[in-house]
Write a structure and sequence with these properties.
Blueprint: E1 5-10, E2 20-24, E3 38-43, E4 46-55, E5 70-71, H1 80-92, H2 97-101, H3 107-118, E6 121-124, H4 128-141, H5 143-154, E7 158-160, H6 161-168, H7 173-181, E8 185-188, H8 211-225, E9 234-238, H9 244-257, E10 261-265, H10 273-283, E11 287-290, H11 296-307, E12 313-316, E13 328-334, H12 352-363, E14 366-371, H13 376-383, E15 388-392, E16 403-408, H14 409-414, H15 423-434, E17 438-442, E18 449-454, E19 471-473, E20 478-480, E21 487-488, E22 502-507, H16 509-519, E23 525-528, H17 538-547, E24 553-556, E25 569-574, H18 578-581, H19 588-600, E26 611-616, H20 622-628, H21 632-646, E27 653-661, H22 664-680, E28 686-698, E29 701-710, H23 713-731, E30 737-743
Parallel strand pairs: 9-14, 9-15, 10-12, 10-13, 11-12, 13-14, 16-26, 17-24, 17-25, 23-24, 25-26
Antiparallel strand pairs: 1-2, 1-4, 3-4, 3-5, 6-7, 6-8, 18-22, 19-20, 20-21, 27-29, 27-30, 28-29
Helix pairs in contact: 1-12, 4-5, 8-9, 19-20, 20-21, 22-23
Bound molecules: adenosine-5'-diphosphate and zinc ion (2 copies).
One zinc ion (ZN) binds near residues 456, 494, 496 and 499.
Length: about 750
């Protein structure tokens, strides 16, 4: 009888292997393997950890199949639901299955898998007082054993093998063996936990819900109680400050009472200490947090707490959708319209909102999408009955929505005001500061000047690696490329024509900050953007100072638009709304509406009403008009019409292909070949391009792109996969060409 064969993802850990391998199941393991289990397999000349995925087909003639060595029982298996989710993710986003499997394990855990093959952790198995007595006795007789026990005592009773060897020398190996034999030590899994909070939460009694909140919660509860097959995802459309977060907390409480777990996704930049403390104040130690501000070790510890079931709630950014829970009852996606839910640059380029929907389906959990400005796609699903729409129209406590004034910057120029602040914004700032209140100024560009232009030849100073203008930074007094981080000194003469008439143009946040200081020398200004928040903890420090009112005006990029809840902010200024409006992207109007609405929502969240001043050269634009009236419905209608005319989402699905390489001609030829290949395989949708990408050169590589458009994403993805599998040899072999595939792109630059 032929041996049973197993499909194994090998070394999900270290290598970028994108193949699955076939191994033989040894008689001792027949009937004992379950998908998601870790096994030890021979690979090349070494042993590696592999993930058993299921039975395999017989390999082609002539391929030798080696047997699985054994189980790695000290690494817990991956739940079946997550394996299924990874498979779905790979299929949907056209990545390999191993690449999707890597999403299930944080980097540290992947390293750990490799480590467990070679090393152990040891834990002291004696009570502290006994250990101390023993150390005394051993000191003369067996000093190394004493040193070993002492080291463990001083390190919370545990240490890794490699750590002991490093600290106590190679000669510690025998004492470890001896101590194990005598039962003083046990080999253990790592148990020490780093606490990313470092403090104890303050618990607060929940507020009494408003009537509107009560009704919304009742709708959510209805869905929670419904049998999974009748359950509908909920789209919670609530204006800024309507108390959505409070509803999340109530719904989470309800699923916990059912004994199930909850995942709450939040955009990275709104995972502020403020947000986290609201969850911890309600649920204390039952909450784990996953975000990029944690060190790799902290992330790993949080992940372990989740996996061991020590917590029942995860609040986290995009990747938390793969949190290793096994009984999820509720998945919340806050600010569901946010583009940071899309992974970019590394396959699989998944959208966490879509993965959340699939995970909810697989686990029979309720999905709640929440936003003041739902993505057009999401609202369309609510309108067409796929989602249940739940609305919060009012702010809590009858607080009014802020008044929004659009200021036409062309008028300002005509009347001789060349400042970056309109008269209206200056007056509003002065009134706010005089009243002892706070303001937020938003501009979606960092740096001092956004570009430097030669007045003689009209050319801007470009990055040598990218087809992008360099930005002037005053603090460092240099030019920087915001795409590749290239830096250069500021030239005195034009590098193109040698003219000395070069001019600094356009303002970024650094300039806004400087102008404020110049106009109002007595006020306290802080700036929050990528440049001021590189250090760990800097982001929190800026927000905490603002919360304590040690800062009067907070200037910032997108970072200041989300999730902030400061009751003394009564003024919000949008320094230039046009920066997003003019992007070459079909979602430019939507993004502008969202940004303006969200940042406006930071004003007037306390007792005093708020106001908003939006500066623009296009005050008549429908997205600004609608945002100024807090009229989502009007924006939605108008934008939906435009999308329908152009056949863009939600009326179609897109797949974006980018071909990049050093030699432009090779890039263009490859792009043509990709198009031909798709046509040959009868791709059923529309193929746009190839054409140079909107940023035609990036980090030294030329870029061409193709946009595929079609009605059914599953069909499109399957067709593209089949075509690429057939055509692989044609261009993948050449190392100088890179092809990236983005299904459902959010950014097509
Ligand atoms: P959103 O997420 O909709 O912008 P939040 O949940 O941040 O709104 O709520 C805005 C503010 O109102 C917060 O300070 C929150 O603590 C407070 N809040 C929420 N619900 C109530 C309530 N029922 N009574 C009093 N205050 C509330
Ligand atoms: Zn010039
Ligand atoms: Zn660059």
């Amino acid at each position: 009888m032929a041996a049973e064969l197993a499909q194994v993802a090998v070394d999900v850990a270290a290598a970028e292997t994108d193949r699955l391998f076939t191994y033989e199941v040894p008689p001792s393991l027949v009937g004992k393997l379950q998908p998601g289990q870790w096994v030890k397999v021979p690979f090349g000349h070494r042993w590696v950890a592999g993930l058993y995925l299921g039975p395999a087909e017989a390999p082609p003639e002539g391929v030798t199949v080696k047997p699985i060595q054994g189980l790695l029982s000290d690494i817990p298996p991956i739940p079946a639901v997550l394996l299924a989710l990874a498979r779905w993710t790979a299929r949907r986003y056209l990545s390999t299955y191993p690449a999707a499997l890597r999403l299930l394990l944080p980097a540290e855990a992947r390293r750990e898998q490799v480590r467990t093959l070679r090393e152990h952790w040891y834990r002291l198995a004696l009570p502290e007082d006994e250990a101390r007595v023993l150390i005394q006795r051993l000191q003369a007789r067996a000093p190394r054993q004493a040193a070993l026990l002492l080291y463990l005592l001083e390190n919370q009773g545990q240490a890794a093998h490699s750590e002991l060897v490093r600290r106590l020398g190679e000669g510690i190996r025998d004492p470890i063996k001896a101590a194990l034999q005598k039962g003083w030590l046990v080999a253990a899994e790592q148990v020490r936990r780093r606490d990313p909070f470092g403090d104890r939460p303050v618990t607060l009694p929940p507020p009494v819900l408003t009537r509107e909140q009560e009704e919304a919660l009742a709708s959510i509860q209805q869905e929670l109680m419904a049998p999974p097959s009748f359950r509908q995802p909920v789209l919670l459309h609530g204006v800024t400050g309507s108390g959505k977060t409070e509803l999340f907390l109530r719904a989470i409480q309800a699923v916990r009472e059912q004994g199930r777990q909850a995942i709450c996704l939040v955009p990275e930049i709104s995972l502020t200490p403020q947000m986290i403390s609201r969850f911890r104040a309600r649920f204390g130690p039952a909450v784990a947090v996953l975000h990029s501000g944690l060190s790799a070790g902290e992330k790993y510890d949080e992940w372990q707490r989740i996996r061991r079931g020590e917590v029942s709630i995860v609040v986290g950014a995009r990747s938390a959708i793969f949190a290793p829970f096994d009984n999820v009852g509720l998945i919340i996606v806050d600010e569901e319209h946010e583009s940071s839910y899309k992974q970019e640059g590394q396959a699989p380029c998944y959208h966490a909102r879509e993965v959340a929907e699939e995970r909810a389906r697989l686990e029979g959990a309720l999905l709640v999408l929440a936003s003041a400005t739902p993505a057009l796609e999401s609202f369309y699903k609510a309108e067409t009955g796929l989602y249940r729409l739940v609305t919060l129209e009012h702010r809590v406590d009858q607080r009014p929505m802020p008044s929004v004034q659009l200021v036409d910057m062309r008028e300002e120029l005509r009347s001789g005001n060349r400042s970056i602040f309109s008269r209206a914004l200056q007056e509003a700032l002065e009134e706010t500061l005089a009243a002892g209140e706070q303001a937020i100024l938003f501009l979606n560009r960092r740096g001092y000047n956004t570009f430097i232009l030669c007045r003689s030849c009209g050319q801007a100073i470009m990055c040598p690696n990218c087809a992008v203008a360099m930005t002037y930074h005053l603090g460092e007094n240099h030019l920087a490329c915001h795409y590749c981080e290239h830096q250069a000194p500021v030239p005195r003469v034009c590098p193109h024509c040698g003219s000395k008439y070069i001019r600094h143009m356009g303002a970024g946040t650094e300039r806004v900050e400087a102008e404020l200081r110049r106009l109002y020398p007595h006020i306290r200004v802080a700036r929050m953007d990528v440049d001021t928040t590189r250090r760990k903890g800097a982001h929190a420090a800026i927000l905490e100072a603002f919360a304590r009112h040690e800062t009067d005006v907070l200037v910032g990029t997108q970072m200041v638009t989300k999730g902030l809840d400061f009751p003394e902010v009564t003024l919000v200024g949008v320094v230039l709304a046009d920066t997003t409006l003019n992007l070459p992207d079909f979602r430019a109007a939507e993004r502008t509406f969202q940004l303006v609405t969200q940042v406006a929502g930071r004003a007037g969240r306390g007792r005093k009403p708020g106001r908003v001043v939006v500066q623009t050269y296009q005050p008549e634009h429908y997205s600004l008009q609608a945002a100024s009236r807090h009229d989502y419905a009007a924006f939605y209608r108008r934008e939906l019409e435009a999308r329908e005319q152009l056949g863009y989402p939600p009326f179609s699905h897109l797949i974006h292909l980018v071909i990049a390489g050093e030699a432009e001609s090779r890039v263009r030829e490859t792009a043509e070949a990709v198009r031909a290949l798709l046509a040959e395989h009868r791709f059923s949708g529309e193929i746009l391009g190839p054409a140079p990408a909107p940023i035609p050169r990036l980090r030294g590589l030329y870029r061409y792109h193709l946009v595929l458009k079609g009605a059914d994403l599953t069909t499109m993805a399957a067709q593209v996969r089949a075509a690429f599998a057939a055509g692989r040899g044609r261009w993948r072999r050449s190392r100088d060409i890179r092809l990236s595939v983005d299904v459902g792109p959010v950014n097509m630059l």
